[in-house]
């Protein structure tokens, strides 16, 4: 149990996906202009990432390894993730229209969110078992959400400030992300 | 097609990284040194070139409805080729780039060029487009890597400016330095682009 | 877009693309498998040469043997001299709980249990901080030490090892790794005497 807690805290704070693993930067910069879109994106990512972690684990250990085609990992994983996103979209549309309305527009963007594929591959590389994979995927998604929502909050406030013209938009956002990353370095060493 | 113009565009005004903000994950993650930036850039260029070539060849055969999955399969195939090829030839480089080699698959630049260019243009033009965008990407990664390596480790491509024992601005090789350097680089590149356009 | 493609054509194209891709990858995998294996082994061999340098007239096997120390697997190359006398060994251990997880290192020990040198095989420690463990100034203090007579902890924890500036966690992991390797050697030596 303590080990699981460490895994969770580690994935959210110490080894945050965005700030130390550099995964999912594109949506991080893209959908962080408003707080509510950031929250929506975070939830969609949490949902897909956890599911993708579970399914890629099964695919890796019950298909790729027994058949000895581990070298097909990249291609199989990305196909699994792409079809999963499609499937989630269809199922959600039919069964939970309210949820679909809230998260639907983010779903297509998720296929190319490298955090999904990255975390799936990392779980395999770290030799996680099924439960660890699921917990790690979900905690990583929480870490992504935390980073995204924090950042969106700052960017909303930033809109009201005067930024030197050359820095307006992406450059200042990048520098703020750097400062946030610095803050997250403070968590380093908290686990272990 | 004017080649000089095309390359000027993909290097500056429409540079995939500094102009369009695509492919940011590998850009930030592997640029702790100029050499790594260069390696990642060239690996991506290869994938971009090959996928553009094949997709443009097949552009009239692939049914419109399933073009995205088809593109993903083609791209992922070449990514795996690069992954295995690098492991067999440049083992140490492969070790440093690690996870970010398979992640070339989800680099939006590649799918972006496939959808926006290769699926509509002739093979020859798609090859040029692939090389131009790939080298533009490589250029951005190399510059970012060089700045971070010089400031953070006091060296570039094995050439030391001051002895190893001396203190350097460590921040630049650490994660926050990646974001901050790219932020300042965006400002610089925007200025250069404006100057080029003004002519 | 104007004409609606038949399902048959859609499926057929996808299957064909997937098949061509699978065949291509199987072929690339086949031709690269051997060079990749060789690269991996060459790296280990290079490391063994470094950590066992100075030992004369020794032979070690092509592939490492395995044992367990503290529930963690240790791979080792036994260095034997003439008539099979144990002359030392190169131990591949997991340095536990580094800054970015475990990392793999190799420790070379001579026949009397003194450390010849250390070599980090694979690590994800922070560049500029944790990778200070690759520097001479840090590695130097380990050379010539043996399991007995040294408290294998960093000074902050009451031991004898000078940690790398601003990288105590990495130093702790490194020290624990070295200790494991030395324990493994002592065990090997005892087994030899039986």
Automatic annotation (TrEMBL), chain A:
Q: Where in the cell is it found?
A: Cell membrane; Endomembrane system
- GO BP term, example: electron transport chain
**Parts of the chain that traverse the membrane:** 6-26, 38-59, 71-91, 103-124, 130-154, 166-191
The way it spans or sits in the membrane comes to: Multi-pass membrane protein
Tell me where it mainly resides: membrane
GO cellular component terms, alphabetically, are: endomembrane system; plasma membrane
Q: Which HAMAP family match?
A: RsxA_RnfA
Write out the similarity annotation: Belongs to the NqrDE/RnfAE family.
- Please state what the protein is called: Ion-translocating oxidoreductase complex subunit A
Q: Which species is listed as the source?
A: Caldithrix abyssi
What gene is behind this protein? rsxA
From TrEMBL, chain B:
Compartments where located? Cell membrane; Endomembrane system
Q: What is its EC number?
A: 7.-.-.-
* Lineage top rank: taxon: Bacteria
Q: Name one GO cellular component term.
A: plasma membrane
Family per similarity comment? Belongs to the NqrDE/RnfAE family.
What role does this protein play? Answer: Part of a membrane-bound complex that couples electron transfer with translocation of ions across the membrane.
Q: How does it assemble?
A: The complex is composed of six subunits: RnfA, RnfB, RnfC, RnfD, RnfE and RnfG.
Q: What is this protein called?
A: Ion-translocating oxidoreductase complex subunit E
Automatic annotation (TrEMBL), chain C:
E.C. number: 7.-.-.-
Describe its function.
Part of a membrane-bound complex that couples electron transfer with translocation of ions across the membrane.
According to the entry, what is the taxonomic lineage of the organism? Bacteria, Pseudomonadati, Calditrichota, Calditrichia, Calditrichales
Residue span of the signal peptide, if any? none
Q: Where are its TM segments located?
A: 6-28
Family, similarity comment? Belongs to the RnfG family.
**Subunit organization:** The complex is composed of six subunits: RnfA, RnfB, RnfC, RnfD, RnfE and RnfG.
Annotated GO MF terms: electron transfer activity; FMN binding
Q: What name appears for this protein in its UniProt entry?
A: Ion-translocating oxidoreductase complex subunit G
Report the InterPro entries cross-referenced here: FMN-bd, Ion_transpt_RnfG/RsxG
The protein's enzyme class: translocase
One biological process term from GO is: electron transport chain
Superkingdom is Bacteria
Task: Please give the cofactor(s) recorded in the UniProt entry for this protein.
Answer: FMN
Keywords (A to Z) from UniProt: Cell membrane, Electron transport, Flavoprotein, FMN, Membrane, Phosphoprotein, Translocase, Transmembrane, Transmembrane helix, Transport
List where in the cell it is found: Cell membrane
| Modified residues annotated as FMN phosphoryl threonine in this record | 168
Q: Which residues form the FMN-binding domain?
A: 98-185
- What membrane topology is given? Single-pass membrane protein
* Cellular component GO terms held in the UniProt record: plasma membrane
